[in-house]
Structure formats: C-alpha cells, structure tokens
Amino acid sequence: MAAGAFLLKDPESTVFEKVRVASQAYTIGDIVMLDRVSDAIDVVPATSSTTTTNLYGVAVQTVASSATELMIAVITPKQEWLLQSANDAVVNNKFQRMLLTDANTVNNTGTDNTTKEAVFMQTGYQGALTAKVLVGKFLKVANVTA
Fold it and tell me: What is the spatial distance between Cα 97 and Cα 115, in angstroms, rounded to a whole number?
C-alpha cells in the first residue's frame, strides 16, 4: 500500500470539498489540517503536532506545489480508514490512540497516547503485521483544547 490514508468505509455520505492551498505539493492520501494563521489558505499538511481540533481531511487528488486548490474528503468520526504506520502492526494495539508521524503516516509506538495530538485510534490492521497498514478511526473533535 502506498503511504497515506485511504477511506475504507463511511456509513454516511462522504463529503468532498475543495480547499485553498499554497506552495505545497499534495499526494492522494495526504492528511490535512486547518490553517488558522493565513486568511488565504484553508489547509496545510498534517504533522505530529496536529490536534484533534485541527484535523480536517484527506487529499483525494495529487497536485503540484503551484496548485491553489485541493480536493479532499472531509474526515468524520464514523469513517474507517487504512493508514500506513511507522512500525509493524501489533494485534494488541487495538483501541490505542496515536499521533501522526507526518501527513501520511501514523506513529504506532505501542503505548496509548492521551494528548490532544492523538488523532488516530487503531481498530485493527490489514494484511501481514509487517505490511504496516492499520485500520482505524480519526479522532476528530471540535473546540477541545486538551
């Protein structure tokens, strides 16, 4: 599987939205977060510091750094996603909350993370453990600071 997040299941209608971007190339599966600094940009690539309040969507198209718009799938709590992990999948990590490593990888350390940066919860894995593909849900919430 290519690095990134890929929608596995959505019990509701998936919402797709065009968002404004600047000076950044995006690949299908890149996770994006809200940009609350610039009035001219809606989203930027997610990082290990992305919080549950800023988590926003996943790129559904590849664009060059010269692009001004990006089509994304808006993340909701009911969706189930496949996400590349930094380490081999572990069966006993089910329901652990995890930080992102970057815009297309989750950092599965084997320890449940309780901080506001824990934006992904593993519910399973796909394929061999060494394939490093987790199944889970993004933990998106609004107006929570801790």
Answer: 9
Q: Residue holding tokens 């010269």?
A: 66
User: What are the residue boundaries of the structural domains of the chain, listed by start?
Assistant: 14-74, 80-138
Identity of the residue numbered 20: R
What is the reported pLDDT for 145?
57
Residue 79 neighbours by CB under 8 Å, 6+ apart: 7, 8, 9, 10, 11, 14, 137, 138
Report d(CA 69, CA 131) in Å as an integer.
Answer: 32
Report pLDDT digits (tens) over 1-43: 678 999 999 999 999 999 999 999 999 999 999 999 999 999 9
What 3-state class would DSSP assign to 54? coil
